[in-house]
Every structure is written in structure tokens, then in C-alpha cells.
Amino acid sequence: xxxxxxxxxxxxxxxxxxxxxxxxxxxxxxxxxxxxxxxxxxxxxxxxxxxxxxxxxxxxxxxxxxxxxxxxxxxxxxxxxxxxxxxxxxxxxxxxxxxxxxxxxxxxxxxxxxxxxxxxxxxxxxxxxxxxxxxxxxxxxxxxxxxxxxxxxxxxxxxxxxxxxxxxxxxxxxxxxxxxxxxxxxxxxxxxxxxxxxxxxxxxxxxxxxxxxxxxxxxxxxxxxxxxxxxxxx
Length: 234
What we know:
By secondary structure, this protein is mostly helical. Helices cover 58% and strands 10% of the residues. Strands 1-3-2 form a three-stranded antiparallel β-sheet.
């Protein structure tokens, strides 16, 4: 991502992460930032189609630490998939090492958004009262599941809009080829990969987490970095 665009996105996300930011203000920052991130992804894909050296397929590993490590993994997956990245979960101590595969520009977008969303989720959880009848940990796990599900849906929508507005008829083929190349890279590294079974969550926080996901700043239109940002409160 060019330094100028990166600087704009970081500033917008920082404003949305501010606990003093109202929902309306956060939505405005969100509209600007997601447009930048999604359109940047389309621009880089088209540039790489002409010159593959500008955006190679790569990988990186993110350490996801406790508490709520598995729930953070779910949020990372919800961000990675719409941005055409794939991730593999590996157990590491009391957390996970998430091995991400994707084009360099898309990996950068995932890391930037994921870091910001963890901060926003931490603020949202801190401001949400756990019902007296619910177990705090169960409530927070279900809250994070709702947050991740809505965020993922909004990112899919943003990517679709950016692609449809590009004015490039061949873009669909370009993006499909990029997804195929990422999948091939992952398969080369993990030829016997298994899909994890779905989780069963018993808390009652899904609805309020989903509402927070609708308000979260994803960086753009109608949508909503640091090791310390990868921590959620207990």
C-alpha cells in the first residue's frame, strides 16, 4: 500500500478506535476508510495482472494469544476470506499461530484491518454489560462470534462493490486467478489440511456483538497496529 494511502487509512481507523467516537462519527470514518482499502485491493490486482512482480503471492504468520484466542482466530478468518487470503490455524501454547497466504497487498490489508478490529472489539466488549444470568466468558465468546460474522459480511459487500465499480470487464477473471493461486500455494504447504468442526457457543452475546460489528470501522462506504492491539480483556 502506498505510504500516502496507508497514512490516510491508519488515521481513519485510529479515529474509529477512539472510545470517545460516537457511532455516527465512526460510521463516517468507516465510509472513507473501507473505500480506500477495497479500491486499493482492486487497483493492485489489476497492476499485478500486467506486472506480477509488483504483488507476489506470499505468506506470513500472526501469533494469536489468550484470552479468547480461538475467538480472535474467528475474527481473523472473517477478515481474511473476503480479502482473498486463506489462513491455517496451528496450536501454539495457549494460543495459535495463524499462517496466512495471499498476495502481498492483500496480506497487508488483512493485517491492518484485523489489528484495528481487535481494538474496536475490545472497546465494544468493555462497554457491554454481561447479563446477570450469563457466564461472562460464554457471553464474550458469543459476542465476538456475532461481531466477526457481521464484519465478514460487510467486507464481502465492500469488495463486491469495489469490483463492480472498477469498469474493467476482465477483473472477475483476474480476481478468480488470484484466489486460485493463493489456494495452490496453501495446498503446497499443507497438502493434508483438514477443516475444523463448527463451534457451539452457549452465551447470549451474539446479537449485541453483531450490532457492534455493524458499527465497526472497516476502513469504507456503508461499512464500517501493534502487538498490544492483539489483546482482548478478560
